[in-house]
Design goal:
Pfam family, one: GerE
Oligomer: single chain
Number of domains: 2
Largest sheet: 5 strands, parallel
Helix content: 40-55%
CATH superfamily of the largest domain: Response regulator
CATH architecture of the largest domain: 3-Layer(aba) Sandwich
Protein name: Transcriptional regulator, LuxR family
Number of helices: 8
CATH topology of the largest domain: Rossmann fold
Number of strands: 5
Order of helices and strands: EHEHEHEHEHHHH
Radius of gyration: 18 Å
Strand order of the largest sheet: 1-2-3-4-5
GO molecular function, one term: DNA binding
Length: 182
């Protein structure tokens, strides 16, 4: 854990600065500015991973995403935030969840999803989607290129993906060839 947290009690982190500012203003107007909570808006999708690593320690952390990919929800939950919300919410609907997390409740508000992937396959999926470089993915996972290719074949089969080019759109939007959502 880092030293004393000198940051403001309420922090809203977002890759979309305007969205973050609007939410922080709303929460301040609702009297939540004194709460020791960090709200991370996963905008754009994937932002929450780096924001969580740099978030102030010793406070409640709430991640909000509308990414429809169930594997991404599992990966975000593995970061161990106080709360994870995977749905579109109005700012007002966020207030009760913020209040609950500040009281120490750990909450997960995601649609039911049971991933067919193993934890290692999920990690390979996330790293391929974020890094894109197979050599870097193999190094990060600690496997040979042959073992990595076996993991990828398993992922493609389980998720109905055609190949490597489908991984990023799937992970950052939940789109599969059998599910061509815009």
């Amino acid at each position: 854990m880092h030293g004393a947290d000198a940051s403001p009690p309420l922090r809203v982190l977002s890759g979309n600065a305007l969205l973050g500012e609007l939410l922080e203003t709303f929460l301040t107007q609702q009297g939540r500015n004194g709460l020791r909570v960090t709200v991370i808006l996963d905008a754009p999708w994937g932002y929450a991973y780096t924001a969580f690593e740099g978030a102030p320690q010793g406070r409640s952390t709430l991640i909000v995403t509308d990414n429809p990919c169930g594997e991404a929800w599992e990966d975000l939950w593995d970061l161990a935030p106080t709360a994870l919300i995977a749905q579109q919410l109005s700012p007002g609907a966020l207030l009760p969840t913020i209040d609950q997390t500040v009281r120490g409740q750990r909450l997960r508000l995601t649609p039911f999803y049971e991933t067919p992937l193993t934890k290692t396959e999920r990690r390979v999926l996330r790293l391929c989607a974020t890094l894109g470089d197979l050599r870097a993915v193999g190094d990060a996972v600690g496997v040979s290129s042959g073992t990595l290719k076996n993991h990828l074949s398993s992922i493609y089969g389980k998720l109905g993906l055609r190949g490597l080019t489908d991984l990023r759109p799937y992970y950052f939007g939940g789109v599969t060839p059998a599910d061509p959502r815009p």
